[in-house]
C-alpha cells in the first residue's frame, strides 16, 4: 500500500462503527440478482463486507496458498544464507508437489485499465450521500481530467497535467516503469502490455473508496476490478469483437502460474488468471489527502479480488466480464469470458512513477517497509526515503512540478527477496555472505545495477533467542515443548516398556503440513504408534503412516491441555514423541506433560531432548533468524533523488515542500525475523528490516517536540565525511540539525538506539513522534563493519570483522 504523503501522516479519520455499518449492509436486499455462483471452493474464502484491509496498502492476502508460498520462499532464502550457498536456482522444491520461485526473471505482460466513475449512488445507506467524517460533500464521479490545476505559488507537491490520456499511462507503465525495473533488477525483469480505457462504471467512487469498515481499505474496493472489466468486455462486444476474440486477447496476459497451482514446479505457464491486473482510477489518492473526494477516494493498494467462487485451481477470484459477488448490480454488464483475475493493484489518476512502481512491487511480493499505522496518525520508522517501499516512493526531484515522480532504489533486502542479486548468465551471485565471526574485506559496488563487485553483503548472526511464555502446564512445574524448525524433526526419547501410554498434550501445528507422532522402539527399530488424536489424512505426503497429529488441540487458545492415549506394542524398549516440520511455516508447536506408561510416571530427567526444550515455568526460548544487510548508497541513478528528500513545514502553505539531502555512504540494516513488520509503534526499536542510525542523537523542532523519524534518518549512513547540516521548518518555524562528525565504524556492542531522549521516554514524550521509533536496537554480537577510505564514488571498501 502507498504510504501517506501528507505532512502529518493522514488527517484524523472520523470512522463510523464498522459493526453498525456492516449490520446495515446485511439488512439490505441485493440491487439485482446476478448469475448463479459456482459451488463455493474450499481453497479460498469469499470477500465479505466485514473484511477490513487495515491501515496499510497491502491488506492480508485472503488465500492460504499465497501466504504459504511467501513463508516457504522466506524459509529457503534464510536457509541458503546460513549455508552460504553460492548457486542461484530460479526454483526450489520444498516438499511433495511444493516449489518456490526464488527469482522472477521475465518481461511480464501487464493489463492496465483506466476507469472513471458515474454519479449513481449505490442503493444502500452506507454509500448514500457524503462520508460521515465531512471530508467532502461531492458525491459525483469523479470523471478523469477533473483534478484542478494546483496553484504553483503555494503548491509544489501535487502532480498534475491537463490531460491524463491513454498515452500518458502507456508511457508510465511501458517506458518509465519498465526502465525502473530493468535498472533495479540489473536487466533481469521488465514489463510490457497495453492500456485499456477510459471506461466508466455507473457508480460514484464512494462505493469503492468509502472507509465504512473502520480502515482505509474496505472490501468493496475489490469490486472496482470486477465492474471496470465487465464494462470493458461489454464495450468490446459492442465494438464488434466476438467473445472468442476477447478471450484470446485476455489470455495473452496469463503466462505466469504465480502460485504453481498444479504443483509441477513450472511457473512460466498459464494458470487461468491475468498475471498483473492494474487499475488506475479517476481522481486523486486518499493517501495524498485528496481534497475533492476526501475519504471516499481510494487509497492506493494491492489486494486480491476474492468475490466469486469456482476459479481455476479451486480459488476464489473474479471471472472477467461478470457482475456477481459483493455489492453486485444489474447496472454492471454480465458477459462471462472464462478468464479470471485475482491479484490486483490500484493507483490514482495523477499518481507518479513512485506509486506505480511501489504498488507493482507489492504485486511481486514485497511488503511495506514503513510503519503502516502512520497512515492514520500513528507511528513512523526510519526506513523513510531509503527505499521505494517506504517514503522513497513519494520523493521528487526538488522541482516545482510535484513530488512522487522520482522514486529511490529498492534496498538490498528487497532485491534479495526478488532474486535480483542472484547469479545470472554464469556471473555472480551479486552479494557476499559473511558468517558470524568471519573477517571479510569487501569492495561494495553500486547498490543497483549490478557490476562485477557485490551489490550488497549479508552478515549472518547467531539465531536471536527470545523468551516466550506459553502458560502453565497440565500439572504444576515444568513441561516439554518443541517450537519447530525448518525441515527438521524434534524428538524427546525415554526408556519405556510395552503398555498403556498416557500424556497431556497441547499443540498448534500447521494443519495438513506438519505432524506430531508417537513412536515406539521395538527390536532396535522405531515403529509408528496410533493415538486417540491421530489422523489418517495425508494431503501433502507428510503423514505416510497415518498416525500423525496435526492442527490445533481443543481449547488451545485458552491454554487447555488434552489427553493423549496409545498402546505401546509388545517388545517396546523406548518411547519417543516426534514433531516434524516442513521447510516453511509452522504453528506455535507441540507440548508434552505428565507422561505415564502402565500408570507409572516417566521422570522428566529420563527424557533425552533433541529439538524439544524444557518449558521452565511455562517459558521457552524461541530462535529467530537475524542478519545485517550492508549496501552502498550514492547519488546515482534513481538514488539521485536522495538529494531531494522533502518536508512539509509551512502552516500557511500546507502543500509546499522544502528539500534536504539524505547522506550518501554505507547503510547498515538489521534484519530480524522475530518481527513480521516494521511497525515500531507496536514494538519500539524492533522490526523486520530497519536501518541502523549512524548518528542516533535526537533533534527537536522549535516548539520542543521531537523531529519526525524521516528527518532524523537522513544521516543514518556510515562513512568518512561529516554530515551536511540541514534546516527544516515546522509551522514556519526553522530548526537546524547541525553537521555531525563522520562515523566510519559500526560496532554492534555499542548502543545505536534509545527508548528515551533527555525529555521523556516513548509513550510519554510530548508530540506525536517518540524516541523509540528512531533507528533499531541491534544485538550485542561483537560484529563490526568499518568503512575504509572515501565514502563517495561507485565503490565502497569495507571490512567486516569480529570485535577485537
From TrEMBL:
Disordered: annotated span: 34-61
Immune inhibitor A-like metallopeptidase VEG domain location: 628-759
InterPro entries: InhA-like_VEG, Peptidase_M6-like_domain, TAT_signal
A Gene Ontology term for the protein's cellular component: extracellular region
Signal peptide start and end residues: 1-34
GO molecular function: metal ion binding; metallopeptidase activity
GO BP annotation list: proteolysis
Cofactor: Zn(2+)
Top-level taxon: Bacteria
Location of this chain's protein in the cell: Secreted
Every Peptidase M6-like domain range: 98-419
The protein's name in its UniProt record: Peptidase M6, immune inhibitor A
Native source organism of the sequence: Phycicoccus elongatus Lp2
